[in-house]
Amino acid sequence: MGFARRGRRFRDAARGDASTPPTPTPTRPSDATAGARASAGARAIVSSGHGDVDAMLGGGFALGGVAHVGGDGASASAATTFGGYFVAEGGATTGHRVCWVRRGGRAAATATVPRAVETATAATAMEATAATAAATASDGLRIAWQYRRYLKAGRTLDDARVGRGSTATTARASSSGTRKNLRAPDFCHAYDLTKPALEETTARFEFAPFRSSDDDGGGRAWARSFEFIESFVRSLEDGEVGRVLVEPETPSDESEWIECAKFARALKGLTRDTNAVAVLIVPLGSAPPKWAALIRHVVDCAIDVQPLDGPTSEIEALLPDPHTCVGLVAVRKLQFDGALTPALTRMDRVYALQLRRKRMAIRPLQFRPEEDKKKKNDGGCAAVEGTGLDDF
């Protein structure tokens, strides 16, 4: 309980209840706040490191907030990919500092951080222009049009395009037509998942291992992690942005899950009204329902990741490309403390998670016309029968 009490004391100091409170942080970013921008909810936000994740969250992660990413144990690698993008963006953005608490050593942790690359090259742009010109100059036969349609769908999954959403709008295609969702321009870097981040980038990360092997059940591993994060948050200068990523070992029994819930509550009190944002990655699928619900209640944002054990006939019909889809992503909760209005997000409830060598992408599911009609008749709240998405 010691680290939980310290989290409450730090929260009270941030609110001004202590004799020596820290300098208050503005809710909207100013010229002194590095790499942040204002959101529709009147909060300063920073990028998650991936444009599709930012669009799903209505712009990005709010400063002073805590997010949870996870699912069951099988989705741990996919959830870790979210964390890799998060810390990679911190290393690539001037004025951002990274605090990382993770199981294992530094070398194993930094190997999961993707390398920042240029958004586009002249050669890539020339190839795309030539392909578009060749498609336009074809004879226009209906059978050729169908062929070009499938070629175009394949090009959208090219390594140079998957996971990049630099345009102002994104399209959701279905058999009944095309629906466009408004999307703000990306303000994150592009990354290559096949290459680890440069050593000079990860060397600036403040890293602490999470070791519960020497824990006696009293929560010392969680307390040590909290003390390390508390020192990092207190050391942030004016205008600096702190990114905190916590990837602990999965709790093995209920007593450890209790400590995890206490840690999440203390972390929320610590980051409140600061220029820090924290992401906790732990698989709640293996947690007792009581403590899983409590952790989701404490955090400001909860993202669930569910792996695909193998495409079924129903799920495969909904996936934008079954061969590149590795899981499903859903936003369970999105309500950052202090926001004037809820975040403006895309209207889809469940997304497809795609991984294709160099990049990750999050795409809306493809609903068939009869399913679209059913959703309209039911007021837009009905799930697709037989897919299991209503439980997800």
Question: What this model shows, in words?
Answer:
By secondary structure, this protein is α/β, with parallel strands linked by helices. The chain has a single domain (2-120, 181-377), classed as 3-Layer(aba) Sandwich (Rossmann fold). It has twelve helices and 16 strands. The strands form four sheets. The chain has a nine-stranded mixed sheet with strand order 10-5-11-12-4-13-14-15-16, with helices on both faces. It has a three-stranded antiparallel sheet with strand order 1-2-3, with no helix packed on it. Helix 8 packs parallel to helix 9 (254-271).
What's the gist of this structure?
It holds the Pfam family PAXNEB. The two termini are 33 Å apart. The strands form 4 sheets. A 9-stranded mixed beta sheet has the order 10-5-11-12-4-13-14-15-16, with helices on both faces. Strands 1-2-3 form a 3-stranded antiparallel beta sheet, with no helix packed on it.
Set down the secondary structure blueprint.
Elements: H1 2-15, E1 37-38, E2 44-46, H2 51-56, E3 61-62, E4 66-71, H3 76-92, E5 96-102, H4 106-110, E6 114-117, H5 122-136, H6 142-155, E7 169-174, E8 177-182, E9 190-196, H7 199-202, E10 206-209, H8 220-234, E11 241-247, H9 254-271, E12 276-281, H10 289-298, E13 301-307, H11 313-318, E14 325-334, E15 350-356, E16 359-364, H12 369-377
Parallel strand pairs: 4-12, 4-13, 5-10, 5-11, 11-12
Antiparallel strand pairs: 1-2, 2-3, 6-9, 7-8, 13-14, 14-15, 15-16
